[in-house]
Amino acid sequence: MSQNDKGVLEPERVRGHFVSKFVNKLSGQPDSYVNRGNYTFGKTLGAGTFGVVRQARKVSTDEDVAVKIILKKALKGNDIQLQMLYDELSILQHLSHPNIVEFKDWFESRDKFYIVTQLAIGGELFDRILSKGKFTELDAVKIVVQILGAIEYMHSQDVVHRDLKPENVLYVDNSDSSPIVIADFGIAKKLKNKNDLIFKAAGSLGYVAPEVLTEGGHGKPCDIWSLGVITYTLLCGYSAFIAETVEGFLEECTRSKFPVKFHKPYWDNISDEAKNFILRSLTLNPDERPTATELLEDPWITSKALHERVTTNILPDVKKGFDLRKRFRDAVEIVKLNNRIQRLKNLYADEESESDLEENPVNYLNPLDAVGAVAHGLHELTMSSHKKMVELTQEQLKLKSALTQDAFAQIVNAATKNKHKVQGYNNGESSQ
Hints:
The protein contains 16 helices and 10 strands. By secondary structure, it is α+β, with helices and mostly antiparallel strands. Helix 6 (221-236) packs antiparallel against helix 8.
């Protein structure tokens, strides 16, 4: 398979389909567009600034896959974003690891790029944990080991993911023994050498390493920081950092000796080894931060004696944070998804691309139900806190306030976009 000047392996040349190829050539379609006929497209899984992700079935193999569809018009004149697309393609094509989403195929039309990858149907990391009846510290260790294995492999290939977060950690299938895979390499970078630095900031606030937001450059250690934040959230259910601005985040993680705190009573049942592992991962100086290989030798990962001790079910405490987080995220995301698709249609769609930009029917999850559920959850949280106010420390009150403000901001966003439904809800009317 030949490689173009962008470092991307060209789409596989499909044999046969002579009539389709001839018609495509007459209509100005690229040769690889014939591949599209080998896929039956299903529901929309997500949408962003430049396109959508659709579930699809490959007809020739009867395999379910995920297809990222990028609109070329959305990238027109944006050389940086176009290069990021080629970077993502090239990186995915050259990575092969059981805990990294598998690249399958790519092709293009006059108006779109299509990137086909493994479809992980087992759900996102936190959603899967919510569905369990029990979750222990040892379960968290098993998850972290898989993420570390993927990071160790990526870094051995001089690839930095730069956007590690729970939403990008997926289960392959619904079985209890399902492996997890790291997905979404949209802002990943291939370094020129192992010590190369990247100077353009990118990532998700709350999981991004502090050096990414400064002018000194960043490299492989930024993925280790993100792993530390994921581990923190795995063990308590709430976010390690709550700032909503870069300045606030940098102040938050540097105001004390350590960038995070282990609040009582949420961390009372968590081992010191787990806390030390998190603090190692969240070492402020990236040059002193351990590598994935070093963390795989950490006592929290390797101690069999510890693993025999940490069998307490921490799900009830963890679930409180996860559940609230999931509900207000769902309430927002279902609204945002269709809004993004509609915006893409309005800006870029023509007759050819219209069929690829399908909105999901909104009745599979009523946004208002989710908003109401979150509002109820916040009410319960408030009532419970009033009863136990005398027992809460100042640190806990601060944490509760921050969590409540974050949830409230999300509810306001969802409610604003569904004003007529929310007004009906408040008047006791049923939403249709």
